[in-house]
Amino acid sequence: MSTDLLQLPTIYLLEKIGAGNHKPGSGSAAALNGILSCKLLMTVIELTLDPKRAKTYSSSKKELEGIRNKITNDIGPRLETLFEEDSRQFDKTIQKRRDRNSETNQRVKNELQEDSLRELKLSTEIPIEIALLCIQLAKYSVVVFNKGFKAARGDSGVALGNALSGLTGCISIISLNIQSFPKSTWTDSIQLQKKELKKEFQMLNEQNVRLMSVLDEEAERRCEFLAEFIDIRKSFYGKSAITNSDIENLARRIQNTLWEYSELIWGNEPPNNLLDVLNPEKVIELLKYAFHKVQTLGVNEQNEEIAGIINNKDFTIKISGMYEPEVVNFTSAHELGHALLHDRLELHRDLPLDGSEAAKSRPIEERQADKFAAAFLMPSKTVIQLFNGLFQLKRFRINEETARLLTYSSVYELRKKVKTKRDLSRIIAKCGYYDLRTFNSLAKVFKVSTEAMAIRLEELGLIEF
Question: Residue 218: what pLDDT?
Answer without folding.
Answer: 87
